[in-house]
Amino acid sequence: MDKTIYLINLYDYYGELLTDKQREYFEDYYFNNYSLSEISENKGISRNAIHKTIKDTENKLMHFEKILKEYEKSNKIREIIKDIDEEKRKQIEDLL
Would you tell me which CATH number, out of the four given (1.10.10.10, 3.20.20.300, 1.20.1050.10, 2.40.128.50), belongs to the domain 3-68? Predict the structure, then answer.
């Protein structure tokens, strides 16, 4: 799986565990497609500081997944329920 997609999926699970600054920079970089230079310019902070914060955030998201495994569990459940009839599968997916 593409690393970007993986990190965005992890963000969906663990984003609330990040600081406001980490969420803001991550969203600017991954969701708004701003470059490090653009974020740096908009925030009045060095490009290096933005880069470090985003890398720390990525590492933190992967650390949360390593310990909690919520994303992995969700994918396993989706794999298991794919053979269940459509109505019940939809109900279970809505809960995930």
Answer: 1.10.10.10
- Residue 5's pLDDT is what? 96
* Helical ranges in 15-85 per DSSP H: 20-26, 36-43, 47-68, 70-81
Among 34, 30, 35, which residue's Cα sits nearest to residue 12?
A: 30
- Contact call for residues 92 and 77 (beta carbons, < 8 A): yes
Structure tokens at 8: 């965005």
pTM, full prediction = 0.85
Yes or no: say if 50 and 39 are a contact pair by the CB < 8 Å rule.
Answer: yes
Dihedral (C-alpha) 82, 83, 86, 91: value to the nearest 10 degrees?
-60
Query: How many Å apart are CA 50 and CA 55, to the nearest integer?
Result: 9
pLDDT of residue 1: 62
